[in-house]
């Protein structure tokens, strides 16, 4: 996870199912304080409250308060903690097998989160308010990006294949008459890269246009869908899912909106978002 420590103490917790600090144990509590220059590691358990504080290891965060923090699960309920890709300490106290949630509070701003398998620990920094995906589309590994500025370009890696899906939470603005979400192959979108899915809500006509752009050929046949659910100033949840046989499925506010099939999506490597939209978060599941 990447982010910035604000002034004072902050809390990051791993918890079991339920309401943290009420019906759910916080089995790992990590609390850096950039004023006191210490980090508290402990836990909160039902019927017991807070366990003893561990402040060992010094203060690992840099002076500008920006960080890249890795928590790596190890045997025997141990959490290995790296700060800015440098090992800091290990912490082990409670049973971690029931962990289902990650919670942030107080003086901290999170920019991105990535959950990955042990063999996929990121070696480069990844640069989404999270939503609950439909139950038929699990999201065991994901990348979360928050408060992004337009234009947005995000690496999707390894094609848009079944099992992958993208959830975008945003709000249309009135800066342009439309906004565009595009999936493309490697290169510069709309210049050297094929755009294999261009989804463009038309905010004035209340329709959505869908098309593809191939280098050397140009735009292909445009499709128009009516009854657009996108309105200026009204938040939306847009889900783009990879189906079988290069089919793209689009849901808006958890309701199926369209299906689109045209080209091979195996080389799709990026998503681009431009024009009249403010994006709060993007979750890419793979």
Could you say which structural class the secondary elements and strand pairing correspond to? Answer: mainly beta
Number of helices: 0
Uncertain stretches = 119-138
Describe the main β-sheet briefly.
Answer: 14 strands, antiparallel
Order of helices and strands: EEEEEEEEEEEEEEEEEEEEE
Q: Give helix % range.
A: under 10%
**CATH architectural grouping of the largest domain:** Sandwich
Overall geometry:
elongated
- Beta percentage is over 45%
Rg, Cα atoms, Å: 21 Å
CATH class type of the largest domain: Mainly Beta
Strands, total number: 21
User: Whole-Å distance between the termini?
Assistant: 17 Å
What is the fold named in CATH at topology level of the largest domain? Jelly Rolls
Count of discrete structural domains: 2
pLDDT averaged residue by residue: 89
Describe the structure.
This protein has 286 residues and is an all-beta fold. The protein folds into 2 domains: 2-120, Jelly Rolls (Sandwich); 142-285, Jelly Rolls (Sandwich), CATH 2.60.120. The chain is built from no helices and 21 strands. The protein has strands spanning 2-15, 26-33, 38-45, 49-50, 66-74, 78-83, 86-92, 101-115, 142-148, 152-155, 165-172, 179-184, 195-202, 207-214, 218-219, 223-225, 236-242, 247-252, 255-261, 270-275, 277-285. Strands 1, 2, 3, 4, 5, 6, 7, 8, 9, 11, 17, 18, 19 and 21 form a 14-stranded antiparallel beta sheet that branches. Strands 10, 12, 13, 14, 15, 16 and 20 form a 7-stranded antiparallel beta sheet that branches. Mean pLDDT is 89; it is low at 119-138.
């Amino acid at each position: 996870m990447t982010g910035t420590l604000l002034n004072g103490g902050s809390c990051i917790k791993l918890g079991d199912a339920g309401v943290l600090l009420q019906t759910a144990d916080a089995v790992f509590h990590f609390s850096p304080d950039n004023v006191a220059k210490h980090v508290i590691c402990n836990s909160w358990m039902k019927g017991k409250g807070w366990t003893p504080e561990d402040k060992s290891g010094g203060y690992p965060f840099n002076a500008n308060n920006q960080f890249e923090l890795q928590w790596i699960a190890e045997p025997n309920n141990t959490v290995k903690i790296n700060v800015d890709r440098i090992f800091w300490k290990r912490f082990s106290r409670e049973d971690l097998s029931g962990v289902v949630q990650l919670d942030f509070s107080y003086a901290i701003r999170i920019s991105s989160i990535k959950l990955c398998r042990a063999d996929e620990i990121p070696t480069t920094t990844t640069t989404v308010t999270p939503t609950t995906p439909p139950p038929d589309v699990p999201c065991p590994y994901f990348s979360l990006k928050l408060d992004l500025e337009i234009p947005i370009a995000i690496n999707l890696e390894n094609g848009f294949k079944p099992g992958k899906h993208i959830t975008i939470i945003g709000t249309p603005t009135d800066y342009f008459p439309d906004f565009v979400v595009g999936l493309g192959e490697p290169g510069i979108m709309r210049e050297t890269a094929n755009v294999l899915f261009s989804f463009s809500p038309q905010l004035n006509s209340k329709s959505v246009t869908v098309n593809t752009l191939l280098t050397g050929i140009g735009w292909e046949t445009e499709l128009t869908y009516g009854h657009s659910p996108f309105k200026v100033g009204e938040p939306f949840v847009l889900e783009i899912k990879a189906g079988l046989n290069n089919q793209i499925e689009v849901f808006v506010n958890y309701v199926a909106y369209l299906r689109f099939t045209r080209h091979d999506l195996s080389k799709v490597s990026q998503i681009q978002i431009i024009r009249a939209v403010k994006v709060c978060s993007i979750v890419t599941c793979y």
